């Protein structure tokens, strides 16, 4: 049991006080501004709310040095420019009743105040019918300038030196390419939600993204996912109860990803995160995708504002539906229909069991992809004392995924994929420092990466190279693959690299565990290891178990999941009433 200790004892307790405004405003700012991408999100939302049709985002050093958002929207009248920086100051809500039916993206009146509390902000703005623009500068929440200026109609917000006065936040920021990738994600998401508006993103002087503003979602999808992917997507369209309408695009079963990065939902054009909608998509793809693979899905829900509460979370990324079940059913049924009526049928029904093929085998009994389930704690109590494992006798394989084995004290079920990951991981980590175990490709292979993948590659380049990847920049987001780790030398190498990068990018969103190198190695092992659903011969299973016995931590895979479940002989005896 965890013991909760009081933070202070009675003698050292201080009296309750209202926090000084500088402290309170930094705390409040933290809720809205977590990283540079949150600033971009708020400024882009403001530009959209202002009716802008042309939105240009420029960043430097992943947004830490500079974030600039220019729009051609309605501007702010001179007499209101200072008020825009006050907390809870908004032009979008008047009274409580408006809260029930929010039509704008912003409404809390907190963004500019929050950003200005933790950065140096310059606002240059002119409504179209005013002759002169206004230039306002705010630093650390203090107004330092407000004067007339010349500028085109619209608004230009410049945010410099984000978190310069909040060192604790700075420490949590990641490398500039990673922060730039988060920003790229935000801009592309809004571009998808607003195909009729033109978006542009420039990073360190390089154009990263441009959507034409043609009004066609497919045009934006081509800009975000590449032309080939965009063309393969299947349209989704459906009407639901309570005035809900769903439309968008999903991938056919032949197109899938290693992570959920390309699943996005929009409710009334607001980009949101919602586990139940992800689960609805997951259910629609049930049996269509191999285990551990995810679809591409860009889905836009439209419904009366009174059907959805957006005032749930400070960043407005979560919403609450009045009729959640109906929305779930609408998404699930519409996606399923798109798949069953438009997708080529055979793709998911013909599993390829041929033994040399270790990768990406579709499994007919794929479980519904959902949030990863935590390790079942109940088995932990049954572990024998030691952290090593005894020699085991392999009995057989169940569900083409688990090795059944007998030990001196009971029954072991070993997850063949997790076990193989552990074995490979310790081999590769032990070989560190020796000559790189690389296999040169006869023909260098150009690989086009998504900005997220490219960012992960740049962040982890040193260790990827150290472990056998020959990688050269080839212009833009394309890299040249010249060699691969010896262990990986089979199958679709471009896809294996993309999957590894997806996994590294995914990890970036979570707190770091282990060294960077360990993560790179673990993600290589995940690619190489035998998958679930793969039949193994008795000899292959014996070999795997023998190698597992020799590892230092045979009980867990490099990602921390269990490799085996142990069922004590005594428990079996009890269950069968053989006891005493
Ligand atoms: P909110 O968006 O919740 O109203 P903000 O702090 O983001 O709060 O912005 C405060 C106000 O400043 C907005 O309500 C709007 O009137 C004005 N504003 C901010 N950005 C822009 C912009 N790009 N164009 C026009 N008006 C803007
Ligand atoms: Mg706003």
Give an overview of the whole structure.
It is a single chain. By secondary structure, this protein is an alpha+beta fold. The protein folds into three domains: 21-210, Histidine kinase-like ATPase, C-terminal domain (Heat Shock Protein 90, 2-Layer Sandwich); 233-342, Ribosomal Protein S5, domain 2, CATH 3.30.230; 350-358 and 375-580, formyl-coa transferase, domain 3 (2-Layer Sandwich). The longest helix is centred in the middle third of the chain and has 19 residues, at 324-342. The strands form five sheets. It has an eight-stranded mixed beta sheet with strand order 5-4-3-6-2-1-7-8. It has a five-stranded mixed beta sheet with strand order 9-10-13-11-12. α9 (275-284) packs parallel to α10, α11 (416-430) packs across α14 (516-528) and α13 (493-508) packs across α14 (516-528). Helices cover 32% and strands 22% of the residues. It is built from 16 helices and 22 strands. The structure holds adenosine-5'-diphosphate and magnesium ion. Adenosine-5'-diphosphate is lined by residues 42, 46-47, 50, 71, 73-76, 84, 89-92, 106-113, 155.
């Amino acid at each position: 049991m965890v013991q909760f200790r009081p933070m202070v004892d009675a003698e050292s307790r201080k009296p309750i006080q209202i926090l000084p405004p500088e402290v309170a405003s930094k705390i409040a700012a933290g809720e809205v501004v977590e990283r540079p991408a949150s600033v971009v999100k708020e400024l882009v939302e403001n530009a959209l709310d202002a009716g802008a049709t042309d939105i240009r985002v420029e960043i430097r050093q992943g947004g830490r040095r500079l974030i600039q958002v220019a729009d051609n929207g309605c501007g702010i009248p001179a007499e209101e420019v200072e008020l825009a920086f006050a907390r809870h100051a908004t032009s979008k809500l008047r009274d409580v009743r408006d809260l029930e039916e929010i039509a704008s993206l912003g409404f809390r009146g907190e963004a500019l105040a929050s950003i200005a509390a933790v950065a140096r902000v310059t606002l240059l703005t002119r409504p179209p019918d005013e002759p002169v623009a206004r230039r306002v500068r705010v630093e650390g929440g203090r107004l330092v300038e407000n004067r007339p200026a010349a500028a085109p109609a619209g608004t230009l917000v410049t945010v410099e030196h984000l978190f310069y006065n909040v060192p604790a936040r700075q420490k949590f920021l990641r490398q500039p390419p990673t922060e730039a990738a988060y920003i790229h994600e935000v801009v592309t998401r809004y571009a998808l939600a607003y195909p009729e508006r033109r978006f542009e993103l420039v990073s360190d002087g390089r154009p990263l993204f441009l959507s034409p503003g043609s009004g066609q979602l497919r045009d934006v999808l081509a800009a975000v996912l590449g032309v080939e992917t965009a063309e393969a997507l299947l349209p989704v369209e459906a009407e639901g109860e309570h005035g809900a309408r769903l439309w968008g695009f999903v991938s056919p079963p032949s197109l899938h990803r290693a992570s959920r990065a390309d699943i996005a939902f929009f409710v009334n054009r607001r980009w949101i995160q919602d586990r139940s909608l992800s689960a609805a998509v997951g259910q629609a793809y049930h049996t269509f995708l191999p285990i551990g693979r995810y679809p591409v899905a860009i889905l836009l829900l439209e419904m009366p504002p009174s059907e959805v509460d957006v005032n749930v979370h400070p960043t407005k990324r979560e919403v609450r539906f009045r009729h959640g079940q109906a929305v779930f059913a609408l998404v699930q049924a519409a996606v399923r229909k798109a798949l069953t009526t438009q997708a080529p049928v055979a793709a998911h029904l013909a599993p390829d069991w041929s033994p040399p093929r270790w990768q990406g085998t579709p499994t007919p009994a794929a479980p519904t992809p959902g949030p990863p389930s935590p390790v079942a704690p109940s088995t932990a109590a049954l572990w024998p004392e030691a952290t090593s494992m005894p020699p085991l006798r392999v009995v057989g394989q169940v569900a083409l995924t688990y090795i059944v084995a007998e030990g001196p004290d009971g029954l072991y079920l070993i997850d063949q994929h997790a076990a193989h990951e552990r074995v490979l991981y310790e081999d590769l980590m032990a070989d560190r420092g020796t000559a790189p175990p690389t296999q040169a490709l006869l023909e260098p292979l150009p690989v086009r990466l998504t900005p997220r993948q490219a960012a992960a590659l740049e962040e982890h380049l040193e260790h990827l190279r150290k472990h056998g990847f020959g990688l050269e920049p080839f212009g833009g987001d394309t890299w040249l693959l010249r060699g691969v780790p010896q262990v990986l030398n089979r199958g679709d190498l471009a896809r294996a690299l993309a999957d590894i990068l997806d996994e590294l990018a995914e990890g970036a969103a979570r707190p770091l565990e282990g060294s960077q190198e360990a993560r790179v190695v673990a993600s290589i092992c995940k690619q190489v290891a035998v998958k679930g659903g793969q039949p193994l011969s008795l000899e292959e299973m014996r070999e795997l178990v023998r190698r597992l016995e020799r590892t230092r931590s045979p009980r867990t895979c490099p990602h921390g999941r269990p490799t085996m479940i142990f069922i004590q002989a005594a428990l079996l005896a009890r269950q069968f009433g053989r006891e005493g």
